[in-house]
Design brief:
This protein has eleven helices and twelve strands. It is of the alpha/beta class and 328 residues long. The strands form two sheets. It has an eight-stranded parallel β-barrel, surrounded by nine helices. Bound molecules: ligand PBG.
Amino acid sequence: MDLVYRPRRLRRTAPIRGMVRETELSPRQLIYPMFVTEGKSVRDPIDSMPGQFRLSPDELVRECEELYSLGVGAVNLFGYSEEKDELATKSYDPKGLVQRAIRAIKAAVPEMCVQTDVALDPYTTHGHDGLVIDGEIVNDESVEVLCKMALSHAEAGADWIAPSDMMDGRVGAIRNALDVQGFSHVGILAYSAKYASCFYGPFRGALQSAPSGHKKTYQMDPANAREALREIALDLEEGADVVMIKPALTYLDVIAHAREAFDAPIAAYNVSGEYAMVVAAAEKGLIDRDLAMMEMLLSIKRAGADMILTYFAKDAAAVLRAEYGSFI
Ligand code: PBG
């Protein structure tokens, strides 16, 4: 055969494959989502997410130290609250669980980028991300509470506020509240294109936050891609520093569209259901856990995400450390 271009020539050896590799994963661009619970020395295994735990603040700090030494410099905190009410009053308590956890991490690993989830669902009896009045998930009243929650996190030392609630106008309102109170250095990682997805199921198990009804009046319809670009544009206009697409794997096309349309940093959330599928298949011996994990993360990066929130952050960092300095 007389072929000018033989693609296999560039696949012959590991060093050659390494030179033509288009996408690299780095622990620096992984963000580890973590669940905080009350107590001391608590590592409470999460049934719906094998390998993940609800950690008391002291254990959380230990984990952060380990992550940091592996090159993972960012965590995203979720509070596990048993004190739920109609108005999510625990969400903005200055001495609340997440607020204390932020302080503890900052005292031990000051450079760690501490990001905090801002949404009311872990703190409401109905499990919705906003307030419910007369059976309606109300917008502007919810945004007021979200601003209080964001401020309490900033006061505790959070680096980035991550609103995941999908209420309209909350990014601008939070930006303004932060600026007025002297927190102009605190960033906003906006869940901009967050879909009403079944892949959040295991997470809701972790926080006991399954909603009554559904979240389709505020989270996006999985059928819509163009709308995601409008949502992202809106959040950037309102002052988002980083925009997020969530989930990641069933929305890789949206990540790729967003990459073409915007210069802003893009985050993707490799959500609990995506994690649980790999773990469950690996436990059954149907798939290789580490290979599936790395291929998944690579696909998200290749689609155009700069940073990835993933429950695999620590494991992937360990694999990358082993790979670094060798050829694969
Ligand atoms: C809540 C929130 C959810 C997730 C992050 N923040 C669940 C939801 O919207 O119901 C999902 C994360 C995951 O599945 O890993 N605002």
